[in-house]
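Newbie here. four chains, one complex. Structure please?
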Amino acid sequence: TLQHLFKQIFKASLELQEDDHRKALLVSRKKHPEDTIVDINGTKLGGGEQHLIAGPCSVESYEQVDAVAKELKAQGLTLMRGGAYKPRTSPYDFQGLGEEGLKILKAISEKYGLSVISEIVTPGDIEKAVEYLDVIQIGARNMQNFELLKAAGSVNKPVLLKRGLSATIEEFINAAEYIHSKGNGNIILCERGIRTYEKATRNTLDISAVPILKQETHLPVFVDVTHSTGRRDLLLPTAKAALAVGADGVMTEVHPDPAVALSDSAQQMDFPQFSEFMNQLELSGLYKSKKTATK
Amino acid sequence: TLQHLFKQIFKASLELQEDDHRKALLVSRKKHPEDTIVDINGTKLGGGEQHLIAGPCSVESYEQVDAVAKELKAQGLTLMRGGAYKPRTSPYDFQGLGEEGLKILKAISEKYGLSVISEIVTPGDIEKAVEYLDVIQIGARNMQNFELLKAAGSVNKPVLLKRGLSATIEEFINAAEYIHSKGNGNIILCERGIRTYEKATRNTLDISAVPILKQETHLPVFVDVTHSTGRRDLLLPTAKAALAVGADGVMTEVHPDPAVALSDSAQQMDFPQFSEFMNQLELSGLYKSKKTATK
Amino acid sequence: TLQHLFKQIFKASLELQEDDHRKALLVSRKKHPEDTIVDINGTKLGGGEQHLIAGPCSVESYEQVDAVAKELKAQGLTLMRGGAYKPRTSPYDFQGLGEEGLKILKAISEKYGLSVISEIVTPGDIEKAVEYLDVIQIGARNMQNFELLKAAGSVNKPVLLKRGLSATIEEFINAAEYIHSKGNGNIILCERGIRTYEKATRNTLDISAVPILKQETHLPVFVDVTHSTGRRDLLLPTAKAALAVGADGVMTEVHPDPAVALSDSAQQMDFPQFSEFMNQLELSGLYKSKKTATK
Amino acid sequence: TLQHLFKQIFKASLELQEDDHRKALLVSRKKHPEDTIVDINGTKLGGGEQHLIAGPCSVESYEQVDAVAKELKAQGLTLMRGGAYKPRTSPYDFQGLGEEGLKILKAISEKYGLSVISEIVTPGDIEKAVEYLDVIQIGARNMQNFELLKAAGSVNKPVLLKRGLSATIEEFINAAEYIHSKGNGNIILCERGIRTYEKATRNTLDISAVPILKQETHLPVFVDVTHSTGRRDLLLPTAKAALAVGADGVMTEVHPDPAVALSDSAQQMDFPQFSEFMNQLELSGLYKSKKTATK
């Protein structure tokens, strides 16, 4: 009927306009159909091979980070995370070691030949971060801290951008565009769970966001299984799901002794757990170990 | 202080009770550590092997169901879904063929040797359903229609119970308990996405629910990728994620000509798409084709 | 520019279509601009005057309901609620007295000249309900139990329809349409809080839903402050908000001794609390006491 | 059993700590039972009298702000809002006039004797803001930008803190604590709607948050009805609800010509609409006009 034809024309035009808008975005696959490969000292994210990023929630001491780095190295990892500036709900919780933490990360990264990733929380610290880090992380709470995004877009250093606590996928893509619009296209997107009514998990891992982000943008997409679930017993199955759904990699937390960790003690793996996690991932056929590659 | 001691004893007792309560649930793994295997005419759900359930959103005609059944058979499937009673938001939308639809399903199931699954929406229809169906489905909108649950629990027929639109995992488990408490323990749980703020997908697939349900209960757990995402382009990646995370199977919608479907036209696969979906699943190594088994 | 003109035409046409759809609904104000007034034995809901509905969560005994009725009468109320069939998350929780509860309500209603409202949970009980009740309630969990809606639409008895746990306003309106489409236009809508991530309250009272429902439909709109908040300390402020925002009335729970109540003990008021609640509402100028009217 | 006793002692201690923690918060009513009154050039927020804050979404020009200020003055208002730095989803949307906007606000505030409120989005701008503004606003997207909170806590200027897009009430209170912990106790909390599945409104106004915040803290609490609803037709009923529920005031947006506004055109009132809004609020008895007081 006439009414339906009319409707179809509307819908199509509407979609065309949205399409145009997306085409204009620098991070959009329509603008740039090829995958962006972020090369971090030789480890290529987004290039087809899937990688793991692991490390402690917070940098607590040289010894702690040293122990973790040794373990990651043994498992064939090349990328280590660790928080120096910790955004915490309460001002009276442990706020991280700050620049001291960055220095520890730098020293360890040189000792083991690992690349390090750490969160920066304010524009004024971005320049400092460039000296110490291989990847600048922007956390969920700061996904729409636009001044921070612009500052990270103005330096020549890869940025791992986490999805906001309740950001839509569209807002997430636009946040990445803030970085790219300032000249820095080395961006890794990271799904880390969204806030929903369900309380069995700390957040709800939005697994469908991964293929959508891969379709809409040309950027590598990671999944942080630790913050998505907040439960140690779910790290392995959700990591498998992330790899199966097409993520470029998985991020997780490892600590020498989670029970005494200064933050997130309930969700970090200790070394035997991490070793078992790696073995199971490899056994599932979903992850190809890089252990031999490091020998 | 005394008050606090009092409070602590209170709380502890509460928790003990909750623990006891969970232990007491018939569907709980604490009560019954072994996996329940639901045997549907020889197809074993929950027994380690993963299965697919497919079919049209609505039963529209004998010819439509016949065409779908032939295609499913060719792909090695043994379980077909199809809606005869359709719960629709508006009273003026297509409400399904009703008993006529059940008859079509029965006839086709006999012709092809497929088992059929269809939703029943009111207690009064449960007895009738037993004659026509191999599995009674209880849909998301009726997950807390307790009279329907009790009626389904009183017959000797497997029940596929979908998670409610915004049901917590705990409420979902308790809904299954309503069925089991009436004597019917042949229950299949089905995650089908939850309602969140994100609108890029029709619902948000809560992939973490699968390992939690497997831990907490002894029942088979399926994932309906069609209703979770509402997007044809996400069926394959989310099906992979579901199989990788440990689901006992995946449910999806197939229609000879989705464009003219009387419901859910945007999310059903046509036959070439379904064939490609099956091939890709098999190629991923996550799904073992049952084609040879049917020769 | 041309593009914007284009866009405007699309949007307008889209809106026209939606408008047409809404115009078609029997419950829509576009179809029927005048307010529907539901007359319950002389108490007129939706006619400009605001009313209270109160009573125990569950009917527990004749004595309990008798005590509540006496108190309501003293406070000038004419409408009493009380649950006979209780939809409970667990099959092992108190499920209500059933028909015995309806009989108690009927007896008390005659003794005190109060009208009674109670929830019916399955189509098979609707006819029975007509004998005992003045208003049939359909609860949140059954808002999309379409067979129940149709059954309630087929009898000549006012229906109080609660919004589903996570129903959109559009779904809520369509649920009311299911009732009206069967011939029964005496419908009262009741906002009762929606499910969100916030856990400080049991649900999140969606206060904006009230003016939207008043605009979109011609039906009376109530707010259930008890289930919205789940907190006794929030009943008074949210009742004030409901009356100020334009609701036709407020529903709340009163029990002779909430501490021993068989359900919802944490959120019901005892008699002194209820008396204070009524006094404060009257003092605020937002509620006109009907005490004198009953002398 | 022993294990359970152990667990109970643990839990109880945890709870004791939480209680202690809340008691320890500077913003907590347990720490400081009296209401904090924030005095802005003589207008006292939190002192029992309810106030309105209004103004354009964005500062666009001297003439625009001048026109609004004149209208506010005529309506008896003393507090004007206006955005100079605009946090926008897309980097290609209007980002505000920046410091130029602050200068316009300052000039107009002096001309009309109004106090001005504007959002600051990065720590580096806080000191500049102190020169131009009477109240520093921290927006929803920056509620957990902890460096910004600390910077705002280090100056001697009232801060209006908006609730985050999906912040819990507890997180909101802790964000205020970040400000107070640095020495600045002149904080106004502002509920502005939370993100839920419901799309009939831009956000869902969490009206219950107001009495909870008044109970838990000693700070003034406002409701931003414009961002809560995103709908001009809901501003009046929700403003009434806010005043009735016990808010210390209401914030809303007014623009000389909303249709050409550079942001939020669909939700700002023009002058005749604002005048009618003020009249209706006064007529409802919920708001006491300050017009005479300004003569």
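Moderator note: The first strand of chain D starts at residue 38 and ends at 40. Residues 1-33 of chain D form one domain. Thread marked as resolved.
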